[in-house]
Automatic annotation (TrEMBL):
Residues 85-209 form the Hemerythrin-like domain. Gene3D superfamilies: nmb1532 protein domain like (1.20.120.520). This is Hemerythrin-like domain-containing protein. Pfam families: Hemerythrin. The lineage of its organism: Bacteria, Pseudomonadati, Pseudomonadota, Betaproteobacteria, Nitrosomonadales. InterPro entries: Hemerythrin-like.
Amino acid sequence: MAVSEKMLDLTGEASSQLQSAAYHELKDLVRGEIVTMLTKQEPTMLMNTINLHLRDNLSWEIQQEAVDLWRVVIRHREDAPATDVIDLLTRDHKRLDDLFARSLHHINAGEVAEAAPLIKEFIVGLKKHMDVENNILTLSFAAPRDPFGGDPTSTMLREHDEILGQAAVIESYFEDGLPDAKEVAAFFAIMSGTLAKHEYREESLLFPHWKAAIFRVPAEMQSALFKRVQETLIEGSN
């Protein structure tokens, strides 16, 4: 992949305009591009805020070069190795989202043959992803539960069962050949909405808990967990 490098000097930018100026330059960053940003303001909060708006699409390294000068080397997240287990899961969410979105696009266009391999790959990966969350992270780093099932973990497990049920219905239509697009379009649409709500709740409520819990265990345990999760997800993507 060809690499394109760009210098972004924001040292003369007013503090009130810094975020908008940086966001404008970074919002369309794609794989293979590297932006080196210079700023007089410590950039950690700035980068976290921009990255939140860009749904965690950025990876960066910060180096202080003088009392009031910072250099930030910014890449697309997919160009940098995953940093921890939650990073692996977030990236896998995006991979699965892309597979499902592409299959949905083909279904809506009546291109069932093109959708078939994508939805099959999606379902295989989905099961592996949920295996990690249900049987590795939930069991190893339990979050507080309530007897009425309203806690984030109970909600996640219920939604996983619901999503797997929806996936099984879709999968059944492809078992003996190719269905008519109109037969399955409604099921694809339902799953699309379910996935979006589920991932948002999971990433905002459970991922921070798991991330904090993982960082509290010894480094060798973190490394072993990272390897186990990575191998499980890679197996699901093959």
